[in-house]
Specification:
Family: Belongs to the D-isomer specific 2-hydroxyacid dehydrogenase family.
Strand order of the largest sheet: 8-7-6-9-10-11-12
Radius of gyration: 21 Å
Strand content: 5-15%
CATH topology of the largest domain: Rossmann fold
Largest sheet: 7 strands, parallel
Keywords: Amino-acid biosynthesis, NAD, Oxidoreductase
Pfam families: 2-Hacid_dh, 2-Hacid_dh_C
Shape: globular
Organism: Candidatus Zambryskibacteria bacterium RIFCSPLOWO2_12_FULL_39_23
GO biological process, one term: amino acid biosynthetic process
Oligomer: single chain
CATH architecture of the largest domain: 3-Layer(aba) Sandwich
Bound molecules: glyoxylic acid
Helix content: 25-40%
Length: about 325
């Protein structure tokens, strides 16, 4: 009987798929992110054949050593920067992820962050809730139109492509993008223009939205000098991974009004925030919830379970990363 260890509770549908195969499923008995040593301790309790991990788990050599029987790690996330792929590959461990199924949710959340900034929605909400609204005024919280603005998308995969579509067709935004590969679909669907140089995109975009995976090459992709290239009226949106942005540099850029604002769902040292970020009026911050939809989370649970089942039944898992 295959033994599966899940590092936190995921939707029942995935757990049931594994149980229907008569696999033994154990869920790490924790309320919050388990420490590395806690995970290792639990993994040593039984000879687990597979691990379902979350983006908050650092899956590296110490975890692989604690679970020497585990031949597959199914990451319950699109991103897999939390897994040491090189080490997994060296040990012949298969790693899978959950691409595609949360892209609609993340794209909608990206649009929500954009609109929250352009409409000054959160500032207005705080003002009303604080009892400060004393009547309509012509100059109360003047915002910006999204319509007609230039949205610069950095990385046009599943999520970036959807953001392009929503911004263009929903709000009449002009779309420009950078990516290592050309995306002819968003060029024909949205009239998107590709920029080969990120710096050039940053100079002209009114909103810059980040949708790249976290890799060595994308760590601090947006740093102090990049922020200086942006327009003082521009907004930066990040729903990808926190370390893609140098967060301390971003705080300085926001404090000095080098850029107008930022909408962040992810943070460089999550769940910690860079000093000063929380106090800024020109930010909208959400707690890494862009994919937090029942449908997305359910589909993610199905993907991790199906990939494990396929692996044990001798088929190639559909979402194999290595
Ligand atoms: C969420 O951040 C994910 O990678 O699925």
């Amino acid at each position: 009987m295959k033994k599966i260890f899940i590092t936190r509770k995921i939707p029942e549908i995935g757990i049931n798929m594994l149980k229907e195969k008569d696999y033994e499923v154990d869920i790490c008995p924790v309320e919050k992110v388990p420490s590395q040593s806690k995970l290792m301790g639990h993994l040593k309790e039984k000879p687990y054949d597979a691990i379902i991990s979350l983006l908050t788990d650092k899956i590296d050599a110490s975890i692989f050593r604690a679970a020497p029987n585990a031949k597959i790690v199914a990451n319950y996330a699109t991103g897999y920067n939390n897994i040491d792929l090189k080490d997994a590959k060296k040990r012949g461990i298969v790693v899978t992820n959950t691409p595609g199924v949360s892209s609609l949710a993340v794209a909608e959340h990206t649009m929500a962050l954009m609109l929250a900034l352009t409409t000054r929605l959160i500032e207005g909400d705080k003002f009303v809730v604080a009892g400060k609204f004393k009547g309509w005024a012509p100059d109360n919280f003047i915002g910006t139109d999204l319509s007609g603005k230039t949205v610069g998308i950095v990385g046009v995969g599943n999520i970036g492509g959807r953001v392009a579509y929503m911004a263009h067709h929903g709000f009449g935004s002009k779309i420009i993008y950078t990516d290592v590969v050309q995306n002819t679909k968003i060029e024909s669907d949205c009239g998107a223009q590709r920029f080969s140089d990120l710096n050039e995109l940053l100079k002209v975009a009114d909103i810059v939205s980040l949708h790249v995976p976290l890799l060595e090459s994308t760590h601090h992709l947006i740093n102090e000098s990049h922020l200086k290239l942006m327009k003082p009226t521009a907004f930066l949106i990040n729903t990808s991974r926190g370390p893609v942005v140098d967060e301390a540099a971003l705080v300085r850029a926001l404090e000095s009004k080098t850029i107008a604002g930022a909408g962040l769902d992810v943070f460089e040292f999550e769940p910690k925030l860079a000093k000063g970020l929380r106090k800024l009026p020109n930010v909208v911050l959400t707690p890494h919830i862009a994919s937090a939809r029942e449908s997305a989370r359910r589909d993610m649970a199905v993907l991790v379970a199906q990939d494990i089942i396929d692996f044990f039944e001798g088929r190639e898992p559909k979402n194999k990363v290595v």
